[in-house]
Amino acid sequence: MQSLASPTRHRVAGSERIGPYTLLRLERGGLEPGVAGQFFMLEAPGRPLPRPFSLCLAPPGELAFLIDPIGPGTEAICELEVGDEIRVLGPLGHGYRLDVERPLLVGGGIGIAPLPYLAEQLGGSPPVVLGFRSEEHAEAAALFPSAEVVIDPVLVTDVLPEGYDVLACGPEPMLHAVADLCPDAQLAWEAPMACGYGACYGCVVEIDGALKRLCLEGPVLDAQRVNGRYRVPAVSEEAVSA
């Protein structure tokens, strides 16, 4: 369920590097982890707007987020130290449907972020396929020791097995390619967000042939709703989940 409460302050419980990414652990306080694929808006110290992140892990008493430091906002978040506090709002949006018979998790790059928590919510050990652009980025596969990992120029779509219910998150070209092969897939998309609950209209994209707010409709959408029609406005990398 989407939360419209005010942001609450949370203390940093830990921070560790995983390849080029940072796994930031926050004390949970009164926040619920929500459904995998939903997102939280995290304050970016020194920046006017928060940044959206999907939940990566939900150990007892904590919420953990995998962050790619691609701009000043995300760099500031990654520089937080144990004991620092930031404001957090969430969970927001719509996550993955968990009523699938044969789940297959597919992630690309920082798009692997929601998959560990998703695997936990699904129960058991669903098969996982992860794709990265370099060996350094592939170090993040440590979050999934049993995953099948491919590195560019090999693509996740080159190794996808048939007969599974695909739940994916990754860069837009990867999601379109997955949708072409798996028209019933559930796909988690990205778009610029400044509020997370539909007030700013910063995440308007084309869904079902009409312009809609991704933070309200998604970020997880059925493949047929967006395949061939999803368009993100031209923005800087700092604005796109930076």
In whole angstroms, the N-to-C terminal distance is 24 Å
Shape: globular
For the biggest sheet, the summary is: 6 strands, antiparallel
**How are the strands of the biggest sheet laid out side by side?**
4-3-6-1-2-5
The parts where pLDDT drops under 50 for at least 5 residues are: 229-242
The residue fraction in helices comes out at 10-25%
Give the total of domains.
Answer: 2
Rg: 17 Å
Total beta-strand segments:
14
Strand content: 25-35%
CATH topology of the largest domain: Rossmann fold
State mean pLDDT (0 to 100 scale). 90
Order of helices and strands: EEEEEHEEHEEEHEEEHE
> Structural class given helices, strands, pairing?
mainly beta
Short description:
The protein is 12% helix and 31% strand. The strands form three sheets. The chain has a six-stranded antiparallel β-sheet, with helices on one face. Strands 9-8-7-10-11-14 form a six-stranded mixed β-sheet, with helices on both faces. 46% of the residues are buried.
Explain what you see.
With 242 residues, the chain is mainly beta. The chain folds into two domains: 8-92, Translation factors (Elongation Factor Tu (Ef-tu), domain 3, Beta Barrel), CATH 2.40.30.10; 103-225, Rossmann fold. Helices cover 12% and strands 31% of the residues. Strands 4-3-6-1-2-5 form a six-stranded antiparallel sheet, with helices on one face. The chain has a six-stranded mixed sheet with strand order 9-8-7-10-11-14, sandwiched between helices. A two-stranded antiparallel sheet has the order 12-13. The longest helix has 10 residues, at 172-181. Residues 229-242 have low confidence and may be disordered.
